[in-house]
Amino acid sequence: xxxxxxxxxxxxxxxxxxxxxxxxxxxxxxxxxxxxxxxxxxxxxxxxxxxxxxxxxxxxxxxxxxxxxxxxxxxxxxxxxxxxxxxxxxxxxxxxxxxxxxxxxxxxxxxxxxxxxxxxxxxxxxxxxxxxxxxxxxxxxxxxxxxxxxxxxxxxxxxxxxxxxxxxxxxxxxxxxxxxxxxxxxxxxxxxxxxxxxxxxxxxxxxxxxxxxxxxxxxxxxxxxxxxxxxxxxxxxxxxxxxxxxxxxxxxxxxxxxxxxxxxxxxxxxxxxxxxxxxxxxxxxxxxxxxxxxxxxxxxxxxxxxxxxxxxxxxxxxxxxxxxxxxxxxxxxxxxxxxxxxxxxxxxxxxxxxxxxxxxxxxxxxxxxxxxxxxxxxxxxxxxxxxxxxxxxxxxxxxxxxxxxxxxxxxxxxxxxxxxxxxxxxxxxxxxxxxxxxxxxxxxxxxxxxxxxxxxxxxxxxxxxxxxxxxxxxxxxxxxxxxxxxxxxxxxxxxxxxxxxxxxxxxxxxxxxxxxxxxxxxxxxxxx
Length: 528
Ligand code: OOB
Fold this sequence. Notes:
This is 2,3-dihydroxybenzoate-AMP ligase. InterPro entries: AMP-bd_C, AMP-bd_C_sf, AMP-binding_CS, AMP-dep_synth/lig_dom, ATP-dep_AMP-bd_enzyme. It comes from Thermocatellispora tengchongensis. This protein is an alpha/beta fold. The protein has 17 helices and 27 strands. A nine-stranded mixed β-sheet has the order 2-1-13-12-14-15-16-17-18, sandwiched between helices. A five-stranded parallel β-sheet has the order 4-3-5-8-9, with helices on both faces. Strands 19-20-21-22 form a four-stranded antiparallel β-sheet, with no helix packed on it. A hairpin with a 2-residue loop joins strand 6 and strand 7 (133-134). The chain is globular, with a radius of gyration of 23 Å. The protein binds 5'-O-[(R)-(benzoyloxy)(hydroxy)phosphoryl]adenosine (OOB). 5'-O-[(R)-(benzoyloxy)(hydroxy)phosphoryl]adenosine binds at residues 188, 232-233, 237, 303-306, 325-330, 334, 350, 408, 410, 422, 425, 431, 436.
């Protein structure tokens, strides 16, 4: 078995309560095309698709994917920047019954090789060149049979996206099973190599539909996709999928700049969008300078890392929009502040669980519940939270409690109202303004550097990013510089956002009482 699903009893409960509807994404798109046919579904630069047009385009792409040999059940790694092609291909794979694997544009050879091998991918989809990186060169060295290129396919014998579409579109739901695998999301990770998160049609559709309800989306809503479109937050919280459930319009931002965002908000009368905390000061600054018309914008979602309270308080008055804090994870559980919550709650908490069926435990180091208001690790179980990672039986044995609660690794306080305050983390991860870095993954690479005998990656507090990665190294001879390490990690094919931004040579590591490297002590000893 590749991944453990929900026990039958829980699945029956989620179906009976109407959370799981038995719909697949291929069928959902066909249904939306019937219901919302002539309404605008998608806007990307000058190009626009109605729901009917999107459904037809997806049908043609589905036929094209089948023609090049992609089969139901196949995994396909999607690594595309924000653009309509991601949306069209994602649904084409759904209609075919294949499974998209969500890679990020920032990923490089190390991450993609791992994703391709772990998922056993039958195909890999890339842009030609994006942000000055040629993805075709990366694809040429990979153990994957089929490569589809959005743009110029180059001299490698890859398939051009523009020539993929078949003449006879495939319609309807396709062969997928609603309780089966719909997509694989990438985990932020805490150990060695990134894990894959299995999401089913039933659970992921509920994730998006319930999020759309909580955010008050309607057919008049317009969602602006600013953060990477493959990111769970942007794709389904409520994001692109939630907007489609409501019959609204999705507008794609080609880059995260507030200048671009403000132009699109004005032009398309955007009503809701999502950003991460590091973007908030840029929004405030650009807003004060350019005075854009944001009158259509009703809700600004901020999440993926802790938003400082003082910044949160400034958003509403400065921009004239309602703030929503979102504390979510690719593994499932989503927390939102609600429209009816008082400002105090919206500006100082990270929301409360999306679903009445989300089960929350806040526990001490012995898994014993702590009282409300006290800090503990958050454990959770529910209708859209995984019960185990994909092809990771060994890891699953410790990442979940015996009764199926996922150990989030986040330290939270629960208020009597049920709202959560994220106060820290027990997992060995660095959150660089929303980008998650698994310390041990990077440490493994650092240890391969000549002369490095010990390596510990930790997060140093940073006013802009929340934290930034710093590498503590025990070296034979002189420690390498930040630049030398960056060159080394680039050659090893690691995504640049994981590179240490500071190197500290140490003679030896301080240890905790149980003999682990004491990263808190290392960070505390940093001079500014
Ligand atoms: C989102 O998902 P991931 O999988 O990239 O990261 C999840 C982790 C959480 O466990 C937590 O450590 C951190 O990111 N996090 C936050 C937060 N939102 C996420 N920490 C503090 N405050 C917040 N508001 O990041 C994600 C997925 C769906 C929706 C929103 C975010």
